[in-house]
Amino acid sequence: MLRKTILLASLAFSTSAAADQPAQDPMKVFENYAVFVVANANCLGLNFNVDNLQVELFNLGGAMKWSATRSRQQAEARVAASTIAYGQNPQAFCSMARSLVSHHGAWQLQSAGLLYRS
Questions:
Q1: DSSP characters for 27-42?
Q2: What is the pTM of this model?
């Protein structure tokens, strides 16, 4: 569990070589993980471990001082919004999801057990 927490914390910080790069906003990471949940079922070539994503959504909610109930509600709301976005324009949604994987770093997501190796 400690290892997962450390890996999650490493995801929250930029891995850019620039030392002045700011840390990622936990709410933005939360929203991105909700996108990944929807992308897993709908975008070819993106294979996420949804169980681990859900755990990390709750961990991020806890890091933002949310109760378990609020974390669940926020996760459900973000996944629902992502589902709607996918339905409106599947190609754009999948393109955005791939861009988010690049932003977070595929190797970091894989190391954290969130993205399966392809």
A1: HHHHHHHHHHHHHHHH
A2: 0.78
